[in-house]
Write a structure and sequence with these properties.
415 residues, alpha/beta, Aspartate Aminotransferase, domain 2, 4-stranded antiparallel β-sheet, 13 helices, 13% strand, binds pyridoxal-5'-phosphate
Length: 415
Amino acid sequence: MKDQLAIAGGTPVRAQGYPEWPVHDEADEALLLEALRSGRWGGYPEPGPYNARFCEAFAAFQGSKHGILMVNGTVTMEVALKALGIGWGDEVIVPGLTFAATAYAPMAAGALPVVVDIEPKSWGIDAEAVEEAITPRTKAIIPVHAGQIVCDMDALTAIAAKHNLHIIEDCAHSPGKQWRGRGVGSFGAFGSFSHQSSKILTAGEGGSLLTDNEELAQKAHSIIDCGRPKDPAGEVYTFGCNYRLGELHAALLCGQLEKFNAQMLERAENARYFMERLKEIDGVRALHLDERVTRLSFYRFIVAITPEAFGGVPNSIVCNALDAEGIGCWVGYEPMSKYPLFQPKLSRLPVAVQYADRLDPRKWSLPVAERAGLVEQIYLDEGMFRAGRAGIDHLIEAFAKLQRNPDALRKAANK
Ligand SMILES: Cc1ncc(COP(=O)(O)O)c(C=O)c1O
């Protein structure tokens, strides 16, 4: 039967799959070979030549003055907090729907993450909830620009200015995005980017900090290089360790950055077509894209489903069914209150500091994040947005096919 769901043995909507990630070519091979033959594989002395070349180009692309490259997009945030002098006894406000790293990083720096809800339209951190959570101990906010969205940076920068707080933007999903014509990662003290293997600017592993502040850049360089001085006089030591990225990874990032702009534009064009076509499908909405987002880029494109439009089943079942139709997707991160990867109780922090009850998930109120993460959220693979309009048409058809088969979805849910 043509309309039978692939999850129930029918023919998939998109049997041929979508373009794979990562993408590499002869230019990447040449760069890697050059780095290999140079004999300088490590990250010391920091920064190495490929490291410096990538940082300069990436910071310029994103509209920041300085880049600091390191081992991943988790320690980036820990280093940013340490460079700002944030640690024991301080609080850092983070959103309730994000990867564990956003909340882990403050703990690694010795600070308490204070988890607040997201706002319902875009799922960016809720500016009102941020303001309510501020105490005399609050030192920073880490907004996460998840998927295609940018958090309300006008509201957040105003709150930060009013309460004398730092902003560190978690831009792990966000190379290329602009808010009011300005690159994300440049609105606060630091922007943090991930170059982990699934990310859209990748070397397999790696992370970048961007900043406009020269002194903060020097501190961050020092922290990731065992505390060695990076100021022009070579006098200022910090307390640091080795978070350097090797030159082979840095060379690969140079090659990947060359290709990034074209990939971003292709994804954005197809995403706009997708958003148009999505109007035909009740019960699936793209996260609200604020009109102040002036350049669209994304790691995954996030949609919210209404379970009632899919026989009452949650996102996990819809994802399995889409996957079977050849549509690569994922339910995304669980809300921080239910997230197995985020384990504050395994840290000694809750017994070591005052006010640690703020780390008790039972005391959090995250209704929007919990519904989003457990019921509604679907992360659509980026490759779907590099397969032309036909690739999007298949995606739309897969959603429509699922909606025509609510009984089969319910059956899959009861298995
Ligand atoms: C929102 C967010 N922040 C931070 C990270 C951490 O990046 P990394 O894996 O490079 O440590 C990720 C990675 O998935 C992420 O999605």
